[in-house]
């Protein structure tokens, strides 16, 4: 469930606003050089072609730091930010040291999958059951099935809505007309 604006990292909201402003000012210049932007915008290291690549595939969007932040802000506005938060928590979990797996698995399960999870993701009963069994003896892939289901949900449902959103359309239009 959504906790409101405080659940979305401030950096993502700021980055989404910076991206929108950056594309607006960047694409009005003739050289399209990030180096000509202020130091604040330099840290974005944004390629003008990025928004056009994001539309090509969901993986392109997720692999772009700026695209991910803009997508996360979009999901927050749609009250479904828990999906990307869960997906990213699973990605982070795969890098966990063996000694910390049980603790981290329980935390992820309790936050996103359990029946009283504060940020419960939309998973079917079978997937929840399998995941609950998997965390009894956790390994690096105990969330793989649940993560794959959420990835597919975002790819088939959220991603197309994002590509049609006014924010994305404005950013991509500015990138095209540069």
Note down, in words, how this protein is organized.
By secondary structure, this protein is mainly α. It contains 10 helices and no strands. It is elongated and about 55 Å long. The termini are far apart.
What are the SSEs and their pairings?
Layout: H1 10-26, H2 39-42, H3 50-56, H4 58-63, H5 65-77, H6 81-93, H7 101-113, H8 125-134, H9 144-164, H10 166-177
Helix pairs in contact: 1-5, 1-10, 5-6, 6-7, 6-9
Main sheet properties: none
How many strand segments? 0
The outline comes out as: elongated
Mean pLDDT: 82
Q: Give the structural class.
A: mainly alpha
> What letter string, H or E per element, gives the SSE order?
HHHHHHHHHH
The number of helical elements comes to 10
**pLDDT < 50 runs, ≥5 residues:** 1-5, 24-45
How much of the sequence lies in strands comes to under 5%
What is the alpha-carbon Rg in Å? 18 Å
Q: What is the rounded distance between the termini?
A: 39 Å
As a percent range, the share of helical residues equals 55-70%
